[in-house]
Specification:
Strand order of the largest sheet: 2-1-3-4-5
Number of strands: 5
Largest sheet: 5 strands, mixed
Strand content: 15-25%
Radius of gyration: 15 Å
Order of helices and strands: HEEHEHEEH
Structural class: alpha+beta
Number of helices: 4
Bound molecules: tetrahydrodeoxyuridine
Oligomer: single chain
Helix content: 25-40%
Length: 133
């Protein structure tokens, strides 16, 4: 899939967002190393913390389908500024794809691209955990 196709897919996911509390739709499209693509949107809940961001929705969707090797993600938001991922989503990205390319769109579809390392320097990962022997 081309970069523009991935962007269009993320933008199309804005229509699927369930965001009746924030009224801030977000769409995401995630490309895996084998070229497969998974999408997500934010899904909110009357118990606010039970909701999930579009990016994590896309990543968990991919993992549930057996994919953990991610190359790039597009995040589309209805904001003037580029829709950047929240801290929790950055940490989830770090788990699977520390080299991930993160393409953030504003409401006009313009993009700003980051390396995940820029967004989450010194991210925690399993190297800090006790190693199995
Ligand atoms: N949200 C996302 O889905 N991704 C982001 O990058 C930023 C925030 C969602 C969470 C919540 O449903 C709404 O946007 C407002 O925070």
């Amino acid at each position: 899939m081309t970069r523009n196709e991935l962007k269009a897919l993320a933008i199309s996911m804005l229509d699927r967002a369930y965001c009746r509390y924030s009224h801030f739709p977000v769409g995401a499209a995630l490309e895996c190393a084998d070229g497969s693509v998974y999408t997500g949107c934010n899904v909110e809940n009357a118990v606010y913390p039970a909701g999930i961001c579009a990016e994590r929705n896309a990543i968990f969707h991919a993992v549930a389908e057996g994919h953990t090797d991610f190359v790039r993600i597009v995040i589309a938001g209805h904001s003037d500024d580029y829709c950047v991922p929240c801290g929790i989503c950055r940490q989830v990205m770090q788990e699977f794809a520390p080299e991930l390319e993160v393409i953030c769109l504003n409401k006009s579809g313009e993009e700003k691209t980051f390396a995940l390392k820029e967004l989450l320097p010194y991210g925690f990962d399993n190297r800090w955990l006790p190693q199995e022997s």
